[in-house]
Design a protein that fits this description.
single chain, 267 residues, alpha/beta, Transcription Regulator spoIIAA, 2 domains, 5-stranded mixed beta sheet, 11 helices
């Protein structure tokens, strides 16, 4: 198991914005170190965090799951977790998993620091030996078995609803539209709350068929919106974790909006 390289320093004179520099790679075997890191930051009462990815070479879904699960704690305390300087490979995964709905990213640490609306005077960056906070001591013994993060449905249900809906209007118990938007002749990525008229009992369909049914009616929806629609009573309140859904969409060759639109056109 390789340790994650973690360093920290402050971006402001008042010590309200912390920069965490990650290095190496994050996978299932060491992702618990990220959990400890965020626990230590919360314990230090710092809630505005910038994670510098410039020295990080790889992040698995286990690592992303920690970020998704932890951001709510920081926002509940008036802060946030913001990402900076992702390399192209990591950014590709970030885009594919559509985590831009949840976590904001910036090209540089300086831009991420400036994005925080704070009374603090943001510096060019505080000297790494001045005001650094000792977090996540990787030399201490942590049992990976007891600290391993479970990235399943329960973790995803805690995601802040507001942060999930940056791209489109909030979806609340909406049902897929079965007709073009009135007066335009075009389909929309919004949802029509009219009851679905069908002889098929949607709640009894296999999961893959439910997903295809959603896509066939709403080709422009995101994976998060598909997850939301599946929880509607018409689909039997189907619950599925975002990682499982993304895997299923890939198996169905529906893992992009372009592919989903092509499928819709073929129906």
């Amino acid at each position: 198991m390789e340790k994650i390289q973690i360093d920290s320093k402050f971006a402001d004179k008042n010590g309200e914005i912390m920069i965490v520099e990650l290095g190496g790679h994050v996978d299932q075997s060491n992702s618990f170190q990220l959990q400890k890191m965020f626990d230590d930051i919360i314990d230090s009462r710092v809630f505005k965090v910038i994670v510098d990815f410039s020295s990080l070479h790889y992040m698995s879904s286990a690592g992303w799951g920690i970020f998704v699960g932890e951001v709510k704690r920081f926002r509940e305390n008036g802060g946030d977790i913001r990402l900076a300087a992702m390399n192209p490979e990591i950014n590709d995964v970030y885009q594919m998993l559509e985590f831009y709905h949840i976590l904001d990213d910036f090209p540089t640490v300086e831009e991420a620091a400036a994005s925080f609306e704070s009374d603090s005077d943001v510096l060019d960056i505080v000297d790494e030996n001045e005001g650094a906070l000792p977090i996540a001591n990787m030399d201490s013994h942590i049992d990976p078995e007891s600290s391993e993060i479970d990235i399943k449905d329960s973790a995803q249900e805690d995601i802040d609803e507001k942060s999930q809906q940056k791209e489109t209007a909030e979806v609340i118990e909406m049902i897929p539209s079965t007709s073009p938007q009135s007066g335009t002749g075009k389909y929309t990525d919004e949802f029509n709350p009219s009851p679905i008229k069908t002889d098929v009992k949607l709640a009894e369909l296999p999961l893959a068929e439910k997903v295809k049914r959603v896509v066939s009616e709403n080709p422009l929806v995101s994976s998060w919106q598909i997850k939301k629609i599946l929880k509607h009573e018409h689909f039997g309140h189907t619950k599925i974790g975002i990682f499982k859904l993304l895997k299923l969409l890939k198996e169905l060759d529906l893992n992009s909006r372009e592919k989903r639109y092509r499928y819709y056109r073929s129906c």
